[in-house]
Specification:
7 strands; about 55% helix; 16 helices; globular
Length: about 300
């Protein structure tokens, strides 16, 4: 972890500290601005991240003046449905923690149960410890963390992984931040069943679903990044597609938008190849037409016909 001025140092002897200069020095605002640009919506999430960043900035200033309250607990819980930006925010959070000197490296290691829990006796501990070793100095992001705990299976080894995590979260919290993520209701049940974990989580961040207008913005940003665009009729088709898809099973917010665009690109490519007897313009290669979206099964009718992704 980056060194901060302890009591009795030249920095601690100063009577004041300039928060604006400290923020500029750490460049933490750049990361916050990147978060605003990278993610559409999520105002409560962005506000919570800014609050945590402000707390850490003030704690850094306090330490420079010799005001030591002990290292703050920074372990977090991210709850929300798939595709709401939890991993993206975790990446930015790792950078914020690094900029402010609370982790040494600022990298993110994202894992699931399979990366931590073994299938036989003696397998779980080395797997979990290997993941923790890779994550040290940064952030460990455990997606769908509740799958670590399976009380219905007496021979399950997830509890062993939880116990190792608990020890590290308490004893090495100066060198590792753990973020547990998943559906809100399942995470609540998980914490009730594992009070030791719950007591170590200082920050709970809830990720709301996107509305139709936000999903449209997300889709357009994705297309722009890939150097595609929608024709006017293509945009109209997208605006019809989104609410239909939102009502169907297995909807995953931004992830479903990316899947829809990937399929539209596939249909566009097949359409263009069918017309290969003539040269194609740059505009044609970039443009998604209405027919590329309307061929989706989402427009076929019922949710059952559309399937999990369309």
């Amino acid at each position: 972890m980056n060194e901060l001025a302890p009591a009795g140092s030249p920095g601690a002897a100063s009577a004041e500290v300039d928060l604006r200069a400290l923020a500029a020095d750490t460049q933490v605002h750049e990361v916050l601005e990147e978060l605003d640009e990278a993610l559409v919506g999520l105002k409560p999430v962005k506000a919570r991240v800014r609050e945590i960043a402000a707390l850490l900035l003030v704690e850094r200033a306090r330490r420079q003046l010799g005001l030591l309250a002990g290292s703050p607990s920074l372990h977090m819980s991210f709850t929300g449905n798939p595709g709401t930006g939890k991993t993206t925010v975790a990446l930015r959070m790792a950078r914020i923690l690094h900029r402010l000197g609370y982790v040494r490296k600022g990298h993110l290691v994202a894992v699931t149960r399979d990366d931590l829990v073994g299938q036989y006796i003696g397998h779980t501990a080395p797997k979990t410890k290997d993941v923790l070793k890779k994550a040290m100095g940064g952030v460990l992001f455990i997606d769908e963390a509740y799958y670590l705990y399976r009380p219905e299976n007496e021979r399950d080894y997830g509890q062993e992984a939880i116990e190792i995590l608990l020890q590290v979260m308490e004893n090495q919290r100066d060198d590792l931040v753990v973020i547990l993520a998943g559906y809100a209701d399942r995470m609540d049940a998980f914490f009730r069943s594992n009070p030791g974990l719950s007591s170590r989580i200082a920050h709970h961040v809830e990720f709301p679903d996107y509305d139709a207008a936000e999903l449209e913005q997300i889709a357009l940003k994705m297309l722009q990044t890939m150097q595609y665009r929608l024709s006017p009729s293509g945009l109209e088709a997208l605006r019809e597609y989104i609410p239909r898809r939102m009502r169907q099973p297995h909807f995953a917010n931004a992830r479903s938008m990316r899947n829809a665009l990937d399929r539209a690109r596939l249909r566009q490519a097949n359409r263009l190849v069918a017309s290969r007897e003539r040269p194609l313009t740059r505009d044609e290669l970039m443009t998604i037409e209405a027919q590329d979206l309307r061929a989706s099964r989402v427009f076929a009718g019922t949710a059952e016909r559309a399937g999990p992704e369309a």
